[in-house]
Amino acid sequence: MPFEFKPLEIPDVILVKPKVFGDERGFFMETYKASEFKANRIPYDFVQDNHSRSQRGVLRGLHYQLRPMEQGKLVRCMRGRIWDVAVDIRKGSPWYGKWVAVELSEENKLMLWVPPGFAHGFVALEDGTEVIYKVTKEYAPELDRGIIWNDPDLGIEWPIEDPILSEKDRKQPRLRDAENNFVYGGEL
Ligand SMILES: Cc1cn([C@H]2C[C@H](O)[C@@H](COP(=O)(O)OP(=O)(O)O[C@H]3O[C@@H](C)C(=O)[C@@H](O)[C@H]3O)O2)c(=O)[nH]c1=O
């Protein structure tokens, strides 16, 4: 099997571990394969790939797009390290307002599947950290929304104090005030 799929504490969020083939030249790994992902509770088509670079302490998030342009995201860190967070914001979900986080790095090569209905964010733990992620719907700026990273109702334990934020992310609302049209449908 080229991948291991491990559901996290919120089981719709899945940690994906690729099989890495190392040899004297370097390494090879598959980073996405439709048949394997579809057979392991990630039945989506991906339509856009993104790439960002961040200095240490940059925090991007927490972001989501409203329905009908809700995005699932397959996130990977190809240089440096991030602490990657997914927050369940599906109304009626047993995990509403709960979060899970994992470290993704150049070294561990792990990927995080963040389904539609989750807010997503990460903090870069090293300078020059590069993140690439596939998304299931295209960017729709008019439906782009966010939640403030340090919302006390979420209590996310970020590993960095005083992060570097975009102007937009400094002004995001709390979850309780954020526009959100996700409804939990018992996805499991
Ligand atoms: C996300 C995105 C941004 N942009 C543009 C808009 C803006 O001028 C510039 C930077 O956008 P942002 O400040 O929103 O970029 P950023 O803060 O990196 O936003 C990203 O954060 C992570 C946590 C996510 O989960 C992503 O879905 C996305 O929301 O890039 C696109 O053209 N396409 C896109 O898909």
Your description of this structure?
Helix content is 5%, strand content 40%. The chain is mainly β and 188 residues long. It has one domain: Jelly Rolls (Sandwich), CATH 2.60.120. The two termini are 22 Å apart. The structure holds dtdp-4-keto-L-rhamnose.
Topology, please?
Elements: E1 3-7, E2 14-18, E3 20-23, E4 26-29, H1 34-38, E5 48-54, E6 59-65, E7 73-79, E8 81-88, E9 99-105, E10 111-114, E11 118-124, E12 129-135, E13 144-146, H2 167-170
Antiparallel strand pairs: 1-2, 2-10, 3-4, 5-12, 6-11, 6-13, 7-10, 7-12, 8-9, 8-11
Bound molecules: dtdp-4-keto-L-rhamnose.
Secondary structure category:
mainly beta
Number of helices in the DSSP assignment: 2
The strand count comes to: 13
Beta-strand percentage? Answer: 35-45%
Q: Indicate the radius of gyration in whole angstroms.
A: 16 Å
User: Mean pLDDT score, rounded?
Assistant: 97
How much helix is in the residues? Answer: under 10%
Largest sheet: 6 strands, antiparallel
What gap, in angstroms, lies between the N and C termini? 22 Å
- Which ligands appear in the coordinates? dtdp-4-keto-L-rhamnose
Total domain modules: 1
Oligomer: single chain
Strand order, largest beta sheet: 1-2-10-7-12-5
Apparent shape? globular
Enter the CATH topology name: Jelly Rolls
What is the string of SSEs from the N terminus onward?
EEEEHEEEEEEEEEH
Q: CATH superfamily assignment?
A: Jelly Rolls
Low-pLDDT residue spans: none
